[in-house]
């Protein structure tokens, strides 16, 4: 029973990171109807920025805040310079743009910081949380930071004018334009927020997977899986999908004989395929009917 509880709590901790990545993916998907294949590399580059700031003597939380702000601005700049001109381009053109952005960011990070593995500090420590052997203080910190961020996002989208405008621009862009909402800038803000959320995921997972230019590839795949499982039309579903994928992969790796780290992802993806066959919109998504 203790092993089961340990794996569930560890799964919730890693699932919190998948939830952040899935939420970032869904925010951009709802804005432009495309999956951002460079989301993980954007998070990785931001994590390197925070590491560099700490190397220059900036305290952890100061580097954390500065990196989130940098990521927010960088997301807006990327949308304005690259994807705004591609707004009416064919789907494959956008896909090529995302792949190019992925390769560029990965190469630039390797050029600046090289491809060697670096230690990334944790502000929470790695000792048992409250004396329990079930979860470490860093895992508890990952969960706490993620839940705090989700709570702030909930209040932002529910009770602020900008948040409500962003929701309107994402769900009903034509109607939003008719009431005076600048949907173009709402999309840019969505990019900025998705980039900032991704940077938080990168900084939280870096002490676990270590810091190097390819660190977020596996996390991004799990983030995509979580977003599809929960529903690309539902930010709440993406978050729940992240936690479900995190717990499921841990339990699969523990209780199914012969399954190592190499097979956990294929089995998780197989489960998602089964779910999508039954419910194509995802567990929490809604089917969208278009009038023709």
From TrEMBL:
GO (cellular component) term, any one: plasma membrane
Membrane topology summary: Multi-pass membrane protein
CDD domains (alphabetical): TM_PBP1_LivH_like
Presence of keyword Transport: yes
Compartment(s) where it occurs, according to its Swiss-Prot or TrEMBL record: Cell membrane
Molecular-function GO term, any one: transmembrane transporter activity
InterPro entries, per database record: ABC_transp_permease, BCAA_transport_permease
Transmembrane segments: 12-32, 60-83, 95-115, 135-157, 185-209, 265-289
Keywords in alphabetical order: Amino-acid transport, Cell membrane, Membrane, Transmembrane, Transmembrane helix, Transport
Matching Pfam families: BPD_transp_2
Record-level GO BP terms: amino acid transport
Keyword set includes Transmembrane: yes
Superkingdom as given in the UniProt entry: Bacteria
Family under the similarity heading: Belongs to the binding-protein-dependent transport system permease family. LivHM subfamily.
Name the record gives this protein: Branched-chain amino acid transport system permease protein
């Amino acid at each position: 029973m203790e092993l089961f509880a340990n794996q569930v709590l560890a799964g919730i901790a890693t699932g919190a990171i998948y939830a952040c990545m899935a939420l970032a993916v869904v925010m951009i998907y709802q804005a432009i109807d495309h999956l951002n294949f460079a989301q993980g590399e954007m998070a990785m580059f931001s994590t390197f920025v925070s590491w560099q700031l700490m190397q220059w003597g900036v305290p952890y939380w100061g580097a954390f805040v500065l990196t989130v702000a940098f990521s927010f601005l960088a997301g807006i700049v990327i949308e304005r310079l690259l994807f705004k001109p591609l707004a009416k381009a064919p789907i494959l053109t956008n896909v090529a743009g995302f792949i190019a952005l992925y390769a560029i960011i990965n190469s630039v990070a390797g050029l600046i910081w090289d491809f060697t593995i670096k230690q990334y500090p944790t502000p929470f420590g790695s000792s048992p949380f409250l004396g329990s052997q079930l979860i470490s203080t860093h895992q508890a910190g990952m969960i706490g930071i993620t839940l705090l961020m989700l709570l702030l996002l909930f209040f932002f989208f529910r009770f602020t004018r900008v948040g409500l405008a962003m929701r309107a621009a994402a769900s009903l862009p034509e109607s939003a334009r008719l009431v005076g909402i600048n949907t173009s800038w709402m999309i840019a803000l969505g990019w900025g927020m998705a980039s900032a959320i991704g940077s938080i995921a990168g900084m939280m997972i870096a002490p676990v997977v270590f810091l190097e230019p390819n660190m977020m590839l596996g996390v991004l795949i799990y983030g995509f899986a979580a977003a599809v499982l929960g529903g690309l039309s539902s930010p709440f579903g993406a978050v729940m999908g992240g936690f479900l994928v995190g717990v499921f992969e841990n339990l699969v790796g523990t209780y199914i004989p012969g399954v190592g780290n190499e097979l956990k992802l294929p089995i998780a993806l197989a489960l998602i395929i089964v779910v999508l066959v039954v419910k194509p919109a995802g567990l929490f998504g809604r089917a969208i009917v278009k009038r023709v």
